[in-house]
Design goal:
By secondary structure, the protein is of the alpha/beta class. It is 32% helix and 29% strand. α2 (34-42) packs across α3 and α3 (83-93) packs parallel to α4. The longest helix has 22 residues, at 173-194.
Length: 196
């Protein structure tokens, strides 16, 4: 059975989730990459989209303009690019779910714990699947930044799968996996060299 979270999101919707859990999202999500974070955090610009209780997707979608805007593909970009700003972005905006590719660092992990936010991974290579889960584009802001960098506000239905990589307790799936793999390294190396 799918675990579907609907926006807007409150703490109770996400505090029971743990790293490795798989969720799907229905409702509103908005894209935002480096330039959006830089404007909100570094340049102290007022964000035209209200992220409070909402979702940010680290993505640069491809959109075409027909009668309305239509999404062609929307896949994740590397979340670590936003590590410098993400903790402050949480505080300034009240965002509750962050979606991207790959893990994030200690600063974001600590901020997720303090602010009761989760980070999720959307599988890379699934940009066309993602576009199929977008019902329509509701709005667009900061178009002067260019198609991949502006804020695209999208209505989605069962968007996912999203793998929880940082939970509200401050657990970090990528950090845990790295420690696990490191602990097995010596044993694996010994096995390799005993073959020679």
């Amino acid at each position: 059975m799918k675990n579907i979270i609907t926006t807007p999101v409150c703490n109770e919707d996400i505090t029971g989730l743990r790293t490795g859990d798989i969720i799907y999202l229905s409702g509103i999500l908005a894209t935002g990459r480096d330039d959006v974070h830089r404007r909100v955090v570094q340049e102290n610009m007022e964000c035209p989209f209200n992220f409070n209780g909402n979702v940010i997707f680290h993505a640069g979608p491809i959109v075409r303009k027909m009668r309305n805007y239509e999404i062609v593909s929307v896949g994740p970009t590397t979340s670590m690019r936003m590590e410098t700003w993400e903790a402050d972005f949480m505080v300034k905006t009240g965002v509750k779910i962050i979606i991207g590719k790959g893990g994030m660092g200690d600063k974001t992990t600590d901020a997720c714990h303090i602010n009761k936010v989760i980070h999720c991974v959307y599988p890379g290579g699934c940009a066309v699947l993602g576009a199929g889960q977008v019902e329509n584009i509701e709005n667009v802001f900061w178009q002067e930044l260019g198609m991949p960098e502006c804020i695209w506000v999208m209505k989605v239905r069962e968007f996912g799968p999203l793998i929880v990589s940082i939970d509200t307790e401050g657990n970090n799936l990528f950090r845990e996996n790295a420690a696990c793999y490191a602990s097995r390294k010596e044993e694996c190396i010994k096995k390799i060299f005993t073959c020679f």
